[in-house]
Structure prediction request, 329 residues.
Amino acid sequence: MIPAALVLDGVTKNYGSFRAVDELSLEVPTGSICGFLGPNGSGKTTTLRIVLEILKPTRGTVAVLGRPSALEVRHRIGYLPEEKGLYKKMKAWAIIAYFASLKGLDRRTARARAYELLDRYGLRAFREARTEALSKGMQQKVQVLASIAHDPELVILDEPFSGLDPVNQEVMEEVIRDLARRRRTVLFSTHVMQHAERICDRILLLSKGRKIFDGTVPEARRRIPRRVRIETADDIAPLTARPDVRSAARLSPDDDDGAAADARDGPGAHRWELEVAEDADTQAILEACFMNRIRLKQFEHSEPSLHDVFVKLVGADAREADAREADRR
Prediction:
C-alpha cells in the first residue's frame, strides 16, 4: 500500500486565546488532487504553513512524504504562497530556472526545464520578457511554473486561481491535471468551487479552523438532498405518496422569481419543491405526473453542486467572517 503523501494528526494552532486551527486530522493520498476549501479566516493558509514548517503547531503532528518534517524533504515539495511576487527585472525563463536551481537542478537542466514549461503552457513568446512587462495573469503562471520546475512529488498551491482570467484559469487547471497524471500529489486552496468540482479527487472543507467535511466530490454532493421543482395548479398528493418523494414544500414568491412567475401562471398555479431520494429516477416522477393527470407548467431538476454544499455547511460562518473583515476595515 502506498503511504499518504501528507498526514496531519490532531494539529492545533493557537494565537493567544484565538484558535486558528482546531484538532485537524487528515490524509492526502499520493497522486491525488485535493481541494482545500473554506471561507476567509477558516484556517486554510495557516494549515498549509504548518505543513511546510513555516509555522509550528501548538500541538499535533505532521508527516510529509513519509517524513516528520517538510524541511527533510523540501527538494521534493513545490509551493506557491498566497502572497505572490517575482523579481521584476529578471526574464521569465530566468525566474523559473533560478527557482529550479535552488531545488538542486544544475544550471543547464534548469534552463532547459524553464523553456520546456514556458512552451508547454503558452508562454513561448515571452521567454525573454522581463516579468515586470508581463500581465498579472502571466506573472502568476510564471510563478506557478517556477514552483514545479524541479518536478516535485508534492505540490502545495495557495489560491492559485486568484486574479486569473477564465483562459488562464483553464491553463492552471491543465497544469494541475498534468501533475496528477504523472502521479504527483497536488493540494490547493481556493474560493472558487467550480475548479474544485471539476478537477479534485477529494476535498477538505474547513470552517473556524475545524474540519467539517473530508471526502470525494460525489460524497460531498450527497450532503445536499436532491430536489425537483414543479409548477402546477393540480393536486400533487399522488406525488407526495410516492416512496421516492421524501417531502414537498410550496415555494413562496421570493424563492423562485415570484412576481414574474405569478404574472405568467395565472390563478391557481403553485410552485413546489420536492425533496427526493438519492436514487430517485426523476424521469419516473415526471411520468407519474402524466399518469395522475397533473398538468405541468414547469418541471426541473438538477444535481447539487459543490457550491450548494459549501453554502449549506459554512454559509453562516462565511457571512460572519466577511462581517468581521468589514469591521476591521
About this structure: The two ends are 50 Å apart (CA to CA). Residues 258-265, 321-326 have pLDDT under 50 and may be disordered. DSSP finds eleven helices and 13 strands in the chain. The first helix runs from residue 44 to 51.
